[in-house]
Amino acid sequence: MTSLSFIKRCAHVLVALILCAVAAAAVISVWTWTQSPMTAPSWDGQLAGVTYSGYRPDQDPQKARYPTEAQIREDMAILAKHTHRLRLYASNEGPNVAAIANDYGIDVMAGAWLQGNAGRDRNELNALIENAKLPNVSRLLVGNEVMLRGDMSAEQLARYIDEVKKKTKKPVSTAEPWTMWMTQPELAKHVDFIAVHLLPYWDEMPAAGAADFSLSRLKAMQEKFPGKKIVVTETGWPSAGDDSGHAKASLQNETLYLRTFVQKAAEVGADYYIIEAFDEPYKAKTEGKVGMYWGVLNGARQMKIQASGTIWKTASFPLLAARLFIVVAPLVLLAMYLARSWNVGCRLLMGVALFGGAAYLGSYALSFDGLYSASRVVLYGLLMPLTALCVLVLWVQLFEGLEVLGRKDVTRLHARKPLAAGAPEPFVSLHLACANEPPEMVIATLESFAALDYRNFEVLVVDNNTKDETLWRPVQAWVAEHADHFRFWHLPYCPGFKAEALNHALEQTNKDAQVIGVVDADYVVEPNWIRDLVGHFAEAPVALVQAPQAHRDYENDRLARWAAFEFDGFFRVGMHHRNARNAIIQHGTMTLVRASVLRELGGWSTWTICEDAELGLRIMAAGHETRYVDEVFGRGLAPATFAAFRSQRRRWALGAMQIMRGHAKTIFGRSGLTFAQRYHFVAGWLPWVSEAAQVVGSIVALAWTIGMAAYPRVFGPPAPSMLALVFVVPAFRAVMGVWLFKRKVKTSWCDTFGAALASVALTYAIAEGVLTGLLGKHAAFIVTAKKKAGAVTSFPAIKREIWLGTLLIAAACGALTIYPEESLEVKSWTSVLVILSLPYVAGLMMVGLTELKWGVFALPRMARIKLRRLKRSLT
Fold first, then answer.
1. Is the pLDDT of residue 797 over 50?
2. Taking Cα atoms as reference points, which of 170, 175, 142 lies closest to residue 272?
3. For residue 69, cis peptide bond before it (omega within 30 degrees of 0)
4. Does the pTM exceed 0.85?
5. At CB < 8 A and 24+ separation, what contacts does 744-753 make?
6. Where are the alpha helices (DSSP H) in 339-425?
7. 655-675 per-position pLDDT tens digit
8. Buried/exposed 246-263: b ≥16 CB within 10 Å, e otherwise
9. What SS3 class is residue 229?
10. Helix 799-818 to helix 675-710 angle, to the nearest 10 degrees?
């Protein structure tokens, strides 16, 4: 027998290994495909020349913050390993770079930075003329793209060039893009050589053919100016930034261009300088985000270019993938083994999700490399924890759904358990707390108690905080007529709300009571409720038996129907998932508790507005067993309006956070809770925390978009890779939600859509509850309205959602106005703003579809009917 058990375990391990390998292979295949691998000639690390300014991330010539001599010498030592020629742009800013370069045997093409300011230009020219005397200065440049910027006329520039030529013995030119030389050929008469910029990125050329394009422009220049030496004084590609037409700024494209161009330039004997030695963040103010990222080395003086091998989107992708999968694979293998009771498809999906999530987080973490803008560092610093939270929530929800779908026995763990034949009925005390409830609704609940197929029980009714006597007096009168089993109390002042009312009932409970049942005041219970469930308490460890919440009278009410199905999603899926590990959420209705346990634990807690879930946590921490029986034994009324529905969910979220804060030591510290119970209490409420993060993210997105409008050089659209989850999460939830609903709740497509819409529309309310609970603010218990009061509308309750949704859509339109070029980054950002607005639009749709007389989609039809009537009246 032992041998057979060992063989069985080995078989499970083998299957887990195979599934783990298949999942890893699937993720690696997709990940490799998304990396768009490219090939290019290897690079020996040597460049014919490179441009150099030397400004570090905290330096800026416009603020007279220059590199120190020590920093320049550090740079020269680094660059001497890759080139023996530098091109400089200025001669009168900071330490004399040309003189320092001489100490390292580096040849210099010295430059004078001209900008149309006579005084400053004169100082630059004088310094250039002085630097011409240095032995390592071989060529001189008078101005850089002066004509392109329009800083001065061609005549004035020519006079400066002629002046420098007369005062020095070195070859002199001025640097301009190839387009300017082609349109201003007369300038060539004044220079000793043509200094041309070949930047295919700005010519909107795709990186794949960019090197050939540059060399074709070089050939065209040689044909245009025969007899003149052509020197490429700038050529290169940015590693990040906004796109320029078909030209995509990326490290992959920079590596491709440099490795391809260097080899082809050597083949044709081209004289060139790569722009530039190091990334220079200060350029963002004048050139935009892309201006920061032209360096061959980054701002930390680290080489950006991979010298050989396949070029990946993510630098060192194979090494990253190998390390990540070595770390994650044992965890996935363990998860596969522990889920051995699941079907193969669900296990495989879980493995793909775990590997895929780890791969995304690994790539995402690397996207912080090369960030120089403080605003972007702040944004991405905010995005990183939000991204990790989103991935964690996706894993949690996928685990929940896959276990329910893939484990056949999980929905049949506990069933009805009537008393054994001839066994005496345990005394059951039913407690009903009500406040400001319609008396006919409460009486219907009491009548269902009276009809129970059970004799050994009592019902204690505690009305609390009801000032209107017309609401509680009829209930009192009904109870007086049924005094055999029913008793009634009215508490005009009950600061602890429902929990305090239930504690009052506990104090009045018959001392012989073995089980206490709690039901909401709007429920009508089945006659067999107690008889079919009370048998579970014959087992000593059982302290709680919970039946699902369910609803009635919703067939002709759209809100009630959608709300009912939205509730069902949790009771058909989430509760089964928790039930598998003795970690259910106790609810304040259709719940049976062992009386002795409830008394030992001190009754119901009044410090939280979710006293039911809090009691369930204490029951588990005390080591007792909880059971969920997924059979409907009672049905209540759905919230009367969307405002009531919204308020109810806000209260639950707030109470959940109160419990997390109040029982932090129990959940995270030493207590009687098992690991699985701790997991479910944290993971079960984690999606609500993510809803709060989504609302906070919406506000941050609005603020960021305002920054894009006010300070476009500082605030730009985030990289699309950092926003991927904004698209993935809604898609995942939609697919997973529909799959689960159709399999477990079995609703129509229309009601599936309605339940999904209702769930999404609650986002802001949940966020309010979470943030209020986490901040520790006091909250009063608000009774959920179950009866409609005239023409009451929920629009005032969702005014914040309306404002936030409107602002997000307006921000999306504004972003397109600010960036009319519609790059991928801009399109991604505007799409994100629209996606973030959807939960708030959903709230508006819920109110429109459930409370307007004809529904918002009926308005066009109504208009057509009125138009036809008008035509008939006119004829």
1. yes
2. 175
3. no
4. no
5. 744/404, 744/405, 744/569, 744/572, 744/573, 745/565, 745/568, 745/569, 745/572, 747/565, 747/568, 751/561, 751/562, 751/565, 752/565
6. 344-366, 374-406
7. 999 999 999 999 999 999 999
8. ebbbbbbbbbbbbbbbbe
9. strand
10. 50
